[in-house]
Design a protein that fits this description.
The structure holds two protein chains of two kinds. By secondary structure, chain A is of the alpha+beta class. Chain A has 21 helices and 26 strands. In chain A, the strands form nine sheets. In chain A, strands 2, 3, 6, 7, 11, 19 and 20 form a seven-stranded mixed sheet that branches. Chain A has a five-stranded antiparallel sheet with strand order 13-12-24-23-22, with helices on both faces. The termini of chain A are far apart. In chain A, 39% of the residues are buried. The chains are: A alpha+beta, B mainly alpha.
Chain lengths: 671, 385
Amino acid sequence: MIKRFLKRLLNRIYNFIKPFKYERLNAFILLSFLLVLIYTYRLLSLALWDGQKWIDLVSEQFQGKIMLSSEKGEIIDRNGAILAASRPVLSFYIRPTEIGDKELFKQLLLGKKEQYEKYCKEKKINCKKLISKISPIFVFKESEIEKAYKKKYTIVKTKSGKILKIPFVWLKKDVAIDRKVAYNAARKLLKVYYNLSGENAFKKRYPDLLGYVKEYVRVYPYAVGSTVVGVSNKFGEGLSGLEYVLQRMGILTGKKTCLSGEKDARGRVYLGNDAYLFVSREKGQNVQITIDGNIQYIFEKVVSKYGKLWHPKFINAVLMNPQTGEIIAAVSWPFYNYMKDEPGRSSEKLLTSRFVTAPYEPGSVMKPFVAAAAINEGLVTKDSVIFCPATLKIGKYVFRNEFHGKDVKERVWEIIEYSDNVGAIKLAQALGKKKLYDYYRAFGFGQKTGVEIPGESPGKLNDWKKWRDVEFATLAFGHHIMVTTLQLAAAYSALVNGGVYVKPKILKAIVDDKGRILKTFQVSKGRRVISEKTSEVMRRILTMVVEEGTGKPTKLENFYVGGKTGTAIKYNRKTGKYDKSRITATFAGAFPMTNPRYVLVVSVDEPKVPKNMLWATKIAVPIFRELAERVLLYERIPPDRKLYRIDENGNFTIIDINRDFLLTNGLQQKK
Amino acid sequence: MNRKLAAWFLFFLSLILSLSGLIFVYTGAYFFSLSKGVSPYLYVIKQGIALMIGVLLALIVNTKFNYRKIARKKFLWFIYLFANLLLISVLIFGREINNSKSWIVVGGISFQPAELAKVLVIIFVSGYIQYKYYQIKDNWAYFLGFMFLAFLPVLLILAEGDLGSAMILSIVIFAVLFITGFDAKYILTPVSAGAVLFVLAVVTAPYRLARIKMLLDPKEYFQTSGKYSSYQLVQAFVAFAKGGLFGMGIGQGVQSKFLFLTFAFSDFMFAHIAEETGVIGALAVILSFFLFLYFGLSIADRSDELVGRSMALGLTLYIFLQAMVHIGVNLGLLPTTGITLPFMSLGGSSLIGCFLAVGLLMNIARLLPGESKVGVKLDGRGRFA
């Protein structure tokens, strides 16, 4: 019943709404209506909710973006010499698959006169003039063109993993031609080609058969400072050193302007109307660093000389201004050579700035800090007499008084002068664990210095509560502690500059192209570690080390040089013992000592030398001496030890000055 | 619906469509003509002249002609001969313009005779059915003879390489047969035979298969270079997507501006309209063509004689199907065929042909026998409607 009723109802409704009297026409209109419904659904889905996918597909492969990687700024040294700069070059490409007459195109590229003359005859123009306009881009060799023809495509893998063949091949990269000249030349050449071959440029998908892209290559004119400045890859992205850091900070690259525009089927990008006018390609900012290119060059030369002589694992040398914390030169052998090496995996090791990344056990160079702490705390004075036995047993370990080899009475400054382990331990014990730890921390050990060089290591200094007695004893002469060369330099600066720790600093200022300073980098205020008086005492003690103690080879005729040697035998992880054949030799010092202007730390790791040479005195000190001499010579520092005078009569006199700077009341006989 | 109202509705609908078509031809072809190095107004002016000729032709056909006289026996054969001659002349003297060899150039004016021939074929078919109705209906031999006559021009169009037009014309012929009350077997047998042939043609020729595959997965074929790239299709999709609901504004379409949608003024006119006026404009276009179908079919519905009915149906369907195939291609529902959007796409011959059809439809409506003033008619089943 219900079925019948429904049938009748449907029939009535149909009869009511049916538009035509012919049933077959109704069928037509019904079918068409269905079709219209399907179309409407599809239209709505494409336009409203499904369309983004297609837009993405298009934009993924033809991104309508122009990345204006503006020219990178320069890195210049403290004197204004350019250490790293960007040079504009053009890279030419061709589209081999789009070229109909390859032979003709090749001849045009090579600058064959016959073809051009043919064209000129037809057009009745001056052939010489035409060739002279195109000739700047006759820089391609036949082999290069053949190679590009053979390659046909550039194969690119998209994000989704699809492999695309793009009709685009680099012909020659990094050609130094003016952009306007190249533009005119390429345009003229294409015009000649299209005319001679009879092809229609408008029918081609890519009519730019020959084109170029303006790029910047990073150049390093002085070729020094690779361990500090670092390198960039061919795209101009910084890979290491300051190139990397400054790019990350967004200083060197400036703002990367990304203009999104529409790209047409021929590959031209159109920007919105407003975008065009207001974009200026701003060059990145120039950064002045504290490195002195010339001193850096001296350092690199000297260090390489010794590196080739001894083949150590590394040689670090850091020259610092103790008053301001500016790093004037920093080198780590073996280093990257801008002239020879290529950036890449193989040169990664060469680019490591080991003076901040590689901590090591410093050895006796730590003793002055113990002495300074003890003096600063008022526990001893520099002249206090301390009894140092030949051997000192702590736990099951025996420490020896190696320099003297017998029980002696020494003054505090003599402990440093002769690098007496037992004396240092006694001073440390007088201080106590906590005080020693606090002073080490205050001098910056166990924490990053915060210098803007990537990959800095904090070194290693355990908390004092975890120290065993033996560890505490060895800490007094620089074992069980890991420091970097730069940390040592900063700590020595605090030791000699009047007792203020200043943060090492490499970035000086942002300057414009004319050298005017736009912004100076903030100098962090130093923190006082030891009193000025203690610092002055330490200067005199360190001078004595060079005058009469272990640093004697560094003694200069005209200058007071002060410093401390450190020979640390290395711990062998395999055997679990200290290996006497492997040492790290360090010399940390300052000059001229009456008013220190430079702090220099040299560390040499595992030099391969005969056994009798395995002392810092023989390894690090000669390097220090040579570097110090040359720096003093280069900077023309007035001598603080001798005064050279020519009086009115023309008599030449040499006067010793600052004699009382030296300490003289030693208890031990000088050898 | 009042037949006269329907006729004038039809006329004004087509006029509105063609006038708005002028705008979209201008915006769609602007950058294309610039890249070709011709004036951007050239195509619009040509289209405008064709529109004027078409409108005049439609009005003349409406007032001065009588469709029954056109469908007289002698005249019919003349029309048939003329249509075939036109098609053959294309095959012989045809010139290739814009990648299709369907143009004839006489005295500097180029036109596509096939567009006119198609309308003439429809006139012939509907007239011939009236004369030989019973013979064709009852006799296989006559039927086959009719099929041969009707499909000879279709084959000629096929020989030109215009598969899409040939398909549309065959569908129109079968639809005319269907509406005139032919037995289903007469229609289904050739249709199924045609379908089998079509499938065979697709399967055997790899390039046709590629086109179907391309339709199913346009993403995959986006990068393939050459004839079977879905590049244009995807660009049409992008045009729809960028248009959104309200469109980017007339003259603001990016896809045609930057030459992604190269044939925004012909093969991809619908996508172009959708980009510039959004879903609203596109729906208006679809609706307009559906209304066109409705008015055309109501004229066919009113006509009590065979020739009027089949002619009205054939001409309406001819225009409607073209539009539907064009839109289907644009929406990625049908394989790319190169069918233009009637009234709107660039193409003077096509416009004139379409207005000839409109004129005939109006003529049919005008000369129908008057409706009874009572307004009550018996419907097919004898009930009062």
